[in-house]
Amino acid sequence: MERYFEDVDLGDLIGPVERVATDAQVLDFCKVWGMAASNRFTSREVAQREGFPDAIVPGIMGMAFLAELVTRWSPSLELKKLDVIFRQLVPHNRLLKLHGVVTDKDEEMGLLEADVYLDLSDGDRMVTGKAVFSLPHREG
Amino acid sequence: MYYLDLHCHSVSSDDARATVEQYLKWVQMLRKRGYQVDGIVLTEHRKFDQGIDYSWLSRQYGTTVLKGSELDTRYGHFLVYGVNHHLLQRFNFADVGLDALALMQEAERTGAIAVPAHPGRYGIGLVEHLANGLDLSALRVVEHLNGGSRKGENERADALVQQAGLLGTGGSDAHFVSAIATCLTEFPSPIRSAEELVTALHQGTFRAVRLEETRAQVVK
């Protein structure tokens, strides 16, 4: 659904979208990313040697999920900036809930801001971020 | 009733992403939705923004904006209200291992108050230290409801409040816009200054509430 700058208000919700970062998806992501096959993201043994409880989802993969959440909100949306704080380790193979809310509207600059969240399905917050984006205007 | 968020961080704190004006815009949006939020207290990490004046924003948005600090001690984080030049001279606010007892005593002596933040937080909260034998018998007030708590942490704070007969505040611990005012402190009358806030906290006629409870208050 195409959204326009003029129609968006503070408090408008983005998502939610559900995703699971499976072992296979993390492995594929790491291959594209250029990471060695066996690392804290793909191997439980390596992760535990480094002090993690299990293999974890790469931070930038979580960011990619959040970027996807925002850019799919509207086809012409342009994501300008995504700034996140990693609060907890994101586990493999768990249902993740991605959602956001519009928090600011800069009429002069034509920019919008949203808080975006990556939570476990039970509500435990893993990643919090701020997205800055633009939407087309209704008149030109 | 008067509702203040006693714990939040603006971009002045290194891990926060919201400006004070964005918080105040959000508060206006919450009011339009029927919630009552009367003000916020900025408690930046390890600092006190002495030179920053938010009074024009406060007037523009009709919302009380006060300043405090959140300091790191050996017994967890402490929210300090009524920060004054005595405290600024006596303590290095950037120190991550301040003496909590000295901070509480000095705050009390100089007309301020130091309140343990998120005492139920796993690993760093006051509850952990009390379990290890720390004596804080002089403690009267703790943060009861913290909007940034993970599962079980507010419950641990609640158990502490009930068992020790403490008074409890509420604050969102917001670092992002949409988290502001998720938890608040309810006072019986308006509070317009840090001095009035300290007085009210000493008087003890307040309680921690969640944002949803302010809406119920308005409807009544």
Q: What's the layout of helices and strands?
A:
The complex is a heterodimer of chains A (140) and B (220).
Chain A lengths: L12 E8 L2 H11 L10 H6 L9 H13 L6 E9 L8 E12 L4 E10 L4 E10 L6
Antiparallel strand pairs in A: 1-3, 2-5, 3-4, 4-5
Chain B lengths: L1 E7 L11 H13 L6 E7 L9 H7 L2 E10 L2 E6 L3 H6 L9 H10 L3 E4 L9 H6 L9 E6 L6 H12 L2 E5 L11 E5 L6 H10 L3 E4 H9 L1
Strand order of the largest sheet of chain B: 5-4-3-2-1-8-9
- How would a textbook summarize the main sheet of chain A? 5 strands, antiparallel
CATH architecture descriptor name of chain B: Alpha-Beta Barrel
| CATH fold title of chain B | TIM Barrel
Q: Please name the fourth-level CATH homologous superfamily of the largest domain in chain A.
A: Hotdog Thioesterase
What's the number of extended β-strand segments of chain B? 9
Low-confidence stretches of chain B: none
Radius of gyration of chain B equals: 16 Å
Strand order of the largest sheet of chain A: 1-3-4-5-2
- Give the N-terminus to C-terminus distance of chain B in angstroms: 12 Å
**CATH topology heading of the largest domain in chain A:** Thiol Ester Dehydrase, Chain A
Strand proportion of chain B: 15-25%
Order of helices and strands of chain A: EHHHEEEE
Total helices of chain A: the number is: 3
